[in-house]
Specification:
180 residues, mainly beta, 6-stranded parallel sheet, 4-stranded parallel sheet, 36% strand
């Protein structure tokens, strides 16, 4: 299942998803937001733009394995009873439920930690400017950022004019499972 799309902002008034300490965010001050019960992603940015996400720790509370053949410590259950996990931290893929396809653009991720997902920290193609400042994306089983069409398998290409402005970004230890 999907979480709802975050409502798009405008170029002059971005939608803001702010942790409690966003104005002076530092180590140990990020608001924890997590997904569970086999949700596709914690934050759904399908077909939305002009969004600022600040001072969040995005994760799930499970260490099940969905990809690979080790299956240890356990395999994620996608049927009742669902494992209490989220597949990805942020999904940017387009949603087939709406006509046409629009990839997200003008997205700010600042002071954000994304970790511990059985698929990817960020999944899907992008349509325009993404700015990442002080972001960590690590210990996700498949990838830190999978640009290949995300978890829905659409395979929509990135906009060739899309840009990523990254400052103080760390993507490491992806391809490994984080122990919860």
């Amino acid at each position: 299942d999907y979480n709802i799309n975050w409502p798009a902002g405008t170029s002059g008034a971005h939608t803001k998803i702010l942790g409690a300490n966003y104005a002076s965010c530092g180590p140990g001050q990020k608001t924890n937001i997590f997904g569970g019960f086999a949700v596709l992603a914690v934050i759904n940015m399908q077909q939305t733009s002009w969004i600022d996400v600040e001072c969040l720790d995005i994760t799930d509370h499970n260490d099940c394995i969905k990809y690979g053949n080790a299956g240890l410590p356990s395999v994620c259950q996608n049927v009742v009873p669902y494992s209490d996990y989220a597949n990805a931290g942020i999904i940017t893929d387009t949603n087939d439920a709406t006509a046409g396809y629009q990839l997200p653009h003008d997205i700010l991720l600042q002071d954000v930690d994304i970790h511990g997902f059985p698929y990817s920290g960020i999944a899907g193609a992008i349509g325009g400017a993404f700015t990442l400042t002080r972001v960590t994306d690590n210990r996700n089983v498949f990838a830190g950022w999978d640009f290949d069409g995300g978890t829905t398998g659409h395979g929509y290409p990135n906009n060739p004019a899309a840009t990523i402005n990254a400052q103080y970004v760390t993507m490491d230890w992806n391809g490994f499972n984080e122990e919860y």
